[in-house]
Amino acid sequence: MNNEQLILTIMSLPRIGRKSVHKLLQIPEFSQISSLKEILIIMNQFFSKEVFTLEDIQLAREKAEEILLKCVKYEIEVLSFLNPLFPARLKLIPDPPILLYAKGNLKCLNEGLPIAVIGTREPTEYGVKMGKSISSLLASSGITIVSGLATGCDAVAHLGCLEGKGTTVAILAHGLDTIYPKENRSLANQILEENGCWLSEYPPGVRGMRNFFVERDRLQSGLSIGVIVVETDIKGGTMYTVGFCLDENKPLGCLNHPDHLLNEPKTRGNQKLIFEGKGIPITNFDSLEEFVNLCNRRKNHNQKDKTILKDSVKPQENEPNQISLWEDF
Questions:
Q1: Of 22-31, 216-225, 298-307, which one has max mean pLDDT?
Q2: Dist CA 188 CA 150 (whole Å)
Q3: 54: enclosing H helix or E strand
Q4: Cα dihedral angle (79, 85, 89, 91), rounded to 10 degrees?
Q5: 308 near 300, Cβ under 8 Å?
Q6: What's the angle, vertex CA 281, arms to CA 288 and CA 92, rounded to 5?
Q7: pTM for this structure?
Q8: Which residues contact 148 (CB under 8 A, 6 or more apart)?
Q9: Are 63 and 203 in contact (CB under 8 A)?
Q10: What's the half-sphere exposure (Cβ side, CA atoms, 13 Å) at 323?
Q11: Longest dimension (CA), the chain
Q12: SS (H, E, C) 124-161
């Protein structure tokens, strides 16, 4: 019985969640479990009473096997917290996952400099163009773009990354046997075709629920070394990711909108975060580059800056120092 089978079996027991399994991992005997009977002994010792029967363990094992067969069918990899391919950054967040389901290029979950680019499902035209431009610039310099495949800013971030010939990770709030929203199915497939990855905490067959999207948001921040908000209102799903980012003391960048867009509802969250000093304003290429350098310094414990963004994507000497299309609105 490997770690994935063992942990999935335990997670299939009633009233057992990831926090309980993380505590179980601290028990020295846990790594030596090789039979269902040994699972039963450990579980009842853990609760200091006979909570489960051997029949409960057998049923849980059957459920686990059903999930694993679905994973084989849909070419989904199962990664336990103990698997060397499990994303190292996600092990460090306050509430780390215990099992992950991944499809595509698993290497990108641990390599490179991942930055989350997120925002509202209903961006302005300016937000669409700037989100795509920022993601494309970052991707063309080898930065992995992390987002959630939602309509609006998330989809724009993935598209911009692909246009920049980069790698992008879509973190989903449901099983990887389906794609939500369905209109992003083509984009999701393109992510895999271009060496990217889908990632989820949920096994195939599980459909998204409201709280799953908040759970997903902590993974977006956790997998990344920094977060960029393209556009958001003061309240909304984006603010959950913002909160996780700030709690983890990671740099938060916010697109700084021109004056004529400051009355737009979907820019008010950006303005508030910048005004409160929580969000770093991203106004032009230099500010984007400084944000990336800050992310790299935090990642490398304040080592000396090195240029991350390639010279080829920087404005030329006679060009205005702006991200593409900055002056068009």
A1: 216-225
A2: 10
A3: helix 54-73
A4: 50
A5: no
A6: 75
A7: 0.91
A8: 118, 154, 170, 171, 172, 173, 213, 216, 217, 220
A9: no
A10: 25
A11: 75
A12: CHHHHHHHHHHHHHHHHCCEEEEECCCCCHHHHHHHHH
Token look-up 């967040």 returns 93
Q: What is the pLDDT of residues 232-261, one digit of tens each?
A: 999 999 999 999 999 999 999 999 999 999
**Taking 50 as the threshold, does the pLDDT of residue 327 lie above it?**
no
pLDDT of 1 reads: 83
Answer whether the bond into residue 114 is a cis peptide, omega within 30°: no
Report the run of H or E that residue 116 belongs to, with start and end.
Answer: strand 113-118
Here the tokens at position 114 are 């991942």
Q: How many CB atoms lie within 10 A of CB 207?
A: 12
pLDDT band, very low/low/confident/very high, at 171 (cuts 50, 70, 90): very high
Domain boundaries, the chain: 3-73, 104-328
Q: What is the pLDDT of residue 310?
A: 56
- What's the fold here for domain 104-328? Rossmann fold (3.40.50)
* 320 has pLDDT over 50: no
On whether the CB atoms of residues 118 and 230 are closer than 8 A, the answer is yes
| Token pair belonging to 286 | 């230099």
